[in-house]
Amino acid sequence: MFERRLAQALESAILLSGGAAHAPLLRGFEQAVSTLLDADPALAALWERVRAGPEPGAVGSFVERMRRSETAWRAARPAVEIWLHHAQLVAMGSGEHTNALSDSAQVWGANVQAREIHGGIHLHGLPDAAPRGAPTPRQLPATSAHFVGRDADLSELDDNRAAHRPGAPQLIVVSGPPGVGKSTLVARWLGGIAQEFPDGQLFADLGGHGPEGLADPGDVLGRFLRSLGAASVPGGLAEKAALWRSLTSTVRLAILLDDAFTAAQVRPLLPGSASCLVVVTSRRRLTGLALEGAVSHQLGALDPDTAMELLSRGGGGARVADDRQAARNVVDLCARLPLAICLAAAHLAVRPKKPLATMAEHLSDGGTLFDTLTADGEGAVRAALDASYRSLPTEAAALYRVLGLLPATSLEGGLIAALAEPAGPRAARGVDALLEASLLEQLLEDDTYRFHDLVRAHARERADAESPPEDRELVLRRFVGWCLARADAADQLITPSHHVPRDPRQPTPDPAGFRTAREALAWLTRQLGSLMAAVRHCAAAGWHTECWQLVDAMHPVFTRLRPTEQRIEAHELGAAAARADGADWGLGRMLTSGGAAFRDAGRHQEAARWYQEALTLAVDSGDQRQRAQAYQGLGNARLRLGELPAARDLLERALALRAEIGYQRGVALSRVSLAEVAMAEQGHDQAVALLGQARRELLAVRDAHDAARALALLGFAHGQLGERRAAEEALWQALGEFEAVGSAPWRARTWEMLGQVAERHGATEEAAQRYERSRTLYEPLSVRDTDRLTERLAALRSG
């Protein structure tokens, strides 16, 4: 389907350009596929024929040869998709309006919606002028430079992959005891075959034995979908899994699912293509995955010689060759598990004169720590952990205990500095010491760290045993305060109209500011798991003020990414905390934003209940702005429930109150919602008037997104009145504005509206092309909308 649309767009571009070799559209395409043309002389020759004019069959042959260049084609495809989108805009818009350019004005790549352009406007370079897709994910953890041996295991993994039947899932389960190196082995193997998976590598820690409990498959799917470019993620697990299978049906991905606990955890995460490779690591064999075609590989301890080589490389050095018996004793006491050996080696590395015999003595004297956890070699790992911990400098040992208390799995350098006492250079020295001792692992992201789950458990036990309760509480207060301060800074930058001053009970060092809203949103997305852990901890500890304030500060990530389950859970906890805190104003915030969470999840009755409670609270407290907000939310809920008279009454009340208190943006948003009610009642003339006024008001307060939304709905209302020219002019302009603000859901909806306008006027083929574009944009956003567009297309073509 994509290749057919590309061929049609190329043919249209040739006709539009009159065959000129340097026409902007063709030059943009040539730039998008330049690497393909450079690598394939035959393809370059075909391109010369294509751009010379409409030779029968040339375009089809050219596109087919590109497609057969598999790896190179996949690498070039994102840039081609950007070009195709632009070409369709130009082709579809060319019959409806003319842009007159004078003087030295040149437009290459971007689509400018205007009647006339005068002067020297230059927008060169299509790929830079158009929105880029998500970067190819490369999420595999880094592997140690001291990786040794495992040749037989790597070879067996190759054999398992080669033996899989065409069309069958490529699913491998690598199991073994803790510390045996399952994750390291798989990351090394997948890294060696990364070129065979040009669409990227994904990684998820399923938390089989982590401090936060089992990772929810829906949360993991949400992260995966966003990594592949989904701007919005559906609510339920089934819907996410369906969208995941759709997005992965034509790609080649390598996926590492680390530390799985059950087969049920894994099943929803399986992609929709046999071209994808999934490797699961677990302490269990997960035999239930055999039903999905999984093959199993059991990983055992290192052989004695390899184990001693690892000890030597990691820090034992010449001592291993000088005293092989002592070295053998050390690796045997480590149960020949890579994690334990690396810990012992790191200890030796900073003590170049320490005899191996002394190290063996220390390992054999593990005390009673973790006496109940000795199965599968865990006791050996813990004995090594004890030895490493005892050898840490005082400040590093203190930091180790501090980090062990945290519920977060991702530890940023800024967080570590905020928690350390005192912060600054001493915190950095502590991190270096923990890295040197192999107790802390640095991730691929800059300045981000994590613990192995066994190391985290050990650090937590040391903290519980050695740190007074008041010190442990102080650490967690600082953690929550840091989360709140960072989220507050992000909220202020991304959604200033929502932001209010917040005051964490336990102040922390000022967090580094964000330079851009995009950077702030990326941080919120990356830290969503840690922020949710902080919310849960606050709720469990009875830190009510921090709990609801943190939920309130997370507003941007909830509204932009819409992680449905976390959003609803957070607001339920936040509302309970605000009630317990006696904070009516905070409760009102929780109820209105929580109502939006239920509304976006399609749970409109529950949304109405939350908004109704918010309304009662606002009336009792006399808060007019919150009262208007509750009316607005309740009106929108009634609209979606089909209760139009009630919706109109509530929205009119919201508008009147907002006008009374001078909230101009709110007035405009109420007009937009009233226009939607009018269109549902077939009052399109009234909708046109309301939307035109709302558009002007939103532009006046510089709300670009909602101004574009008003314009799109205005175009649709004109279309329902049979005014095609006015409808398409508004919709094309709105489409350009949504591209500028990066609103994928409304781009999809606007293309659908354009299709409805064309269909209403009998332009069936044009409508089909627009519906196809809408469906393509909906695919990473919403299964329900994608299915609806599929049904609309089928009905159009069958009729």
UniProtKB/TrEMBL annotation:
Record key words, sorted: TPR repeat
PROSITE patterns: TPR
Gene3D superfamilies recorded: P-loop containing nucleotide triphosphate hydrolases, Tetratricopeptide repeat domain
Listed Pfam families: AAA_16 (PF13191), TPR_12 (PF13424)
Residues in TPR repeats: 628-661
Domain AAA+ ATPase: 168-305
InterPro entries cross-referenced by the UniProt entry: AAA+_ATPase (IPR003593), AAA_16 (IPR041664), P-loop_NTPase (IPR027417), TPR-like_helical_dom_sf (IPR011990), TPR_rpt (IPR019734)
Name of the protein in its database record: Tetratricopeptide repeat protein
Species name: Streptomyces chisholmiae
